[in-house]
Amino acid sequence: MNNKTMMTENEDCVLTLTNVTKDYRQGKQNLEVLKGIDLNIRSGEVTALVGQSGSGKSTLLQIAGLLDRPSSGQICINGKDISKANDENRTGLRRDYIGFVYQYHNLLGDFNALENVMLPMLIAGQSTATAEERAAFLLNKLHLSHRLKHRPAEMSGGEQQRVAIARALANSPKLLLADEPTGNLDPNTAEDVFAALLGIIKETGLAALIATHNMELAARMSRQLRLQDGKLQDLNEPIFAKIAKNFY
Ligand code: ADP
Ligand code: MG
């Protein structure tokens, strides 16, 4: 492989984790949550992260989203090794490159939907006019143009979560991470929000890693990875296809 090919591959790579481990120390106890994770996420791919409660899905997403540091291993974002990046660089990357959707919306209660979506853009230095235009555009895409001036408490759970999705996309991230984004919603609302999320991901062509308990939702993504005993299994590989079949 020549240098040029390697460069192209790197640029393609939105997120790569190599041999990532995470231990939590509690007194004398050492809990090994991640025991050597290798993961490669590319643009246009929507990857499902499944696994039982407590298997480490949130831990993995927090590390991938630069909200926490691994105990060991490498993280490569946008083709650059950021394992040794300082806090300032990590914050900048998180703001410009990564969008995060949590299980609970985490919207600011004193601000309306439009303002909640504008905030990340204002923090990134956009003008108020540009931020407002893009926020309205994203909220419209998520079928919320009639809720722009509503505060979180004046919206339903599904609407709140769609605002949170719009906020995560505000700065046009290349990587979207979502931690059980429909986990707090009733099944019908979860379906609406999930469809809206998948639709906007496909339209923007970004890379996404979405943790979910729900194997039906997972099956609708490009590929499925399962976290078990601290390791990732690719459920699309023949050796795991049988296990995956039992889930559906
Ligand atoms: P999941 O999202 O798959 O339910 P988590 O990543 O939240 O799993 O948790 C994985 C394991 O790590 C659990 O056993 C949990 O109790 C433990 N854990 C998570 N965060 C911490 C922490 N900050 N300190 C100690 N243990 C933690
Ligand atoms: Mg979790």
Structural notes for this entry:
This protein is of the alpha/beta class and 248 residues long. It contains 9 helices and 10 strands. It has helices at residues 3-12, 57-64, 87-97, 113-123, 128-141, 157-168, 187-204, 215-219, 238-247; strands spanning 13-26, 29-42, 46-50, 72-77, 80-81, 98-101, 175-179, 207-211, 223-228, 231-234. The strands form 2 sheets. It has a 6-stranded mixed sheet. Helix 4 (113-123) runs parallel beside helix 6 and helix 6 (157-168) packs parallel to helix 7. It starts with a helix and ends with a helix. Mean pLDDT is 90; it is low at 1-9. Bound molecules: adenosine-5'-diphosphate and magnesium ion. Residues 24, 26, 31, 33, 51, 53-59 line the site of adenosine-5'-diphosphate.
Computed Rg: 18 Å
Listed once per kind, the bound small molecules are: adenosine-5'-diphosphate, magnesium ion
Order of helices and strands: HEEEHEEHEHHHEHEHEEH
Structural class: alpha/beta
Which keywords apply here?
248 residues, alpha/beta, six-stranded mixed β-sheet, four-stranded antiparallel β-sheet, globular, disordered N terminus, binds adenosine-5'-diphosphate, binds magnesium ion
